[in-house]
Amino acid sequence: MSKLKIAIQKSGRLNEDSMKILKDVGIAIDNGKDQLKASAKNFPLEVFYLRNGDIPQYLIDGVVDVAIIGENVLVEKGQDITITEKLGFSSCKVSVAIPKGKSYKSIKDLEGKRIATSYPNTVNQFLKDNNVNANLHIINGSVEIAPNIGLADAIVDIVSSGSTLFKNNLKEVDIILKSEAVLAVSPQISPENQVILNKLQFRLQSVLKARNSRYVLLNAPNNKVDDIINILPGMKSPTVLPLAEEGWSSLHSVINKNDFWEIIDELKANGAEGILVCPIENMVL
Description:
The chain has 285 residues and is of the alpha/beta class. The protein is built from eight helices and 15 strands.
């Protein structure tokens, strides 16, 4: 039986988040310590643990069928690779940073400057789009130190929390790209493995929808039910059930987790009581 070959980063936070989402979609992987390849026990899937920067070429060559990878890496090394799903974790930015004491008004301030980066293709395209000429110093690792040792006037690198910039006396002044983990597909994937990928993607979509939603249960007097229904979005419409206490009903619905507190405040203001909010494990629509 054919197996879908998926690449994930061999270590680090992206590896942990990737393994977690595979677990959440019900795929059991027996990955022993320092293994470079492992098979799923209950799904036609084979996992390859690879260096993040090598994964785009493996996709292009068809060595692996799909990958969970940072979008920023694809922009730099695999522009022609198709992204089929954004996964909502491992968010970061590819940003321009300069020493704290320097001024910056716009990208034009980089004209003629020296920029240290590990993302030359991304930076060159950004500079080209903005008609700016600058000199790039390509560095693999420890990019933040470049301005402090006089190697560069600015850097372009990944920024997550900004703590590394702060420690190196730098400030973020421009964002080139916002990135997150994505599911990317090889242009050489076979029809048989595309079928398996479709099944995997269906599971992923179910888990991602659930992660972004909350299940809400509440009680309300019957004369307030219509007002509360207008507040609750629901997947189609809220479920309304009569309570044992006459004149009261129980309403069940699903809300977006990002709108949680605003909706709860509105519900309370419109007579809702006994509000319970629960996480959702999977959501199949």
